[in-house]
TrEMBL record:
Lineage: superkingdom: Bacteria
UniProt xrefs under Gene3D superfamilies: Glycogen Phosphorylase B (3.40.50.2000)
Keyword terms, alphabetized: Glycosyltransferase, Transferase
Species the sequence originates in: Actinopolymorpha pittospori
SUPFAM superfamilies: UDP-Glycosyltransferase/glycogen phosphorylase
Domain Glycosyltransferase subfamily 4-like N-terminal, residue spans: 36-193
Name of the protein in its database record: Glycosyltransferase involved in cell wall biosynthesis
Annotated InterPro entries: Glyco_trans_4-like_N
Amino acid sequence: MTHGRTRRVLVLNHFALPRSQGGGTRHVELFGRLSGWSHLIVAGNRNNNTQQKFESTSPDFVTVPVPSYASNGVGRMLNWATYAVAALSVGFRRPRPDVVYASSPHLLTPLAGWVLAKVRRAPLVLEVRDLWPRSMVELGYLAEGSHLHRVLVGLERFLYRSADRIVAVAAGWERHFASFGVPAEKVILITNGAEPDDFTPKLTRDKARAQLGVDGFVAVYAGAHGPANGLDLILDSAKQLTDCTFLLVGDGLDKARLVARAREERIDNVRFLDAVPKEKLADVFAGCDAGLHTLAQAELFKEAMSPNKLYDYMAARLPVITNVGGELEQRLIAAGCAVQGSPPSGESSLPSLAAAIRNLADRSVDERATMGAHGRDYVEEHASRTVMAARLEQLLDDVVRK
């Protein structure tokens, strides 16, 4: 507490969602656990995966109107710019915050945060959830060295140097920040994660499977259905593993295409479900045998990743299969909760992912249960929301004491 009052943090996250929505509830879960701080989260009023409007009734979570978009083009950039301007308006109307906390991936949000921090004379904490524009280059959306790329890199450098502290969600980005002259002590790691208690199902396994209409070995993917998520690999694997069932839960820019592909190619063992709120996700997971985490193959993903969906599976005691490769995959394999789905150097992703699913499907129920228990233990120790909220609270306290 400062001078007898609760301190205020203004959180700008274009894509934040309340717990009633399926998707990115990171900030609701983290900031809601702080002591001695009140928070206001400002988000766009459309779910980034579904593009559907939603409303929030919480005084701690307000939305601003943003236009919908259907592809990676002008509409998407207009969506970003609209949010940034509207978030500025909210920030100027509300009481002065003690800290402005602005989250990427797109850089207009932290730019708006910088303006607010300057005008309201508050420290700026920049949260980096994706290394833009580098990830756009690696995924083929942006030409390296182009005029737009140079502008974005310049903005990235400016924001890194202007922020009082930088929050990174993944270990492994140290060299990237250092290349911009950011000292290591300016960066704190607050990973994505999950709270194990949020994934205690209300249904038994048998009732969950009856509601889903599934039997046999069931693998689930729950998350965004976008170009970066590599979901064609799951459809390709399903064509080979006809005795397994695959549930794809969520929405995104690629979902309609994926549904059409499954229909046209008669991939009948893949089922598409709508996104569900986190409190209902536990009951979906209760009927499944493994969690799938796939990504398009990009070197950046191998370097560092901290995917929420992976920790959700582990919190729900599901053994996981991931094709991300790199240090994260090896760490989870060493923890005894994951099967390697990434390809050896120079080989195709498809045989590796299908072989990993087959490997897990052929294991005994008891062995998979043991792997699931190891995963939940890992989350409790290293990636729970409670652990990360304590780290966030310490960061905010330190920033206002500077």
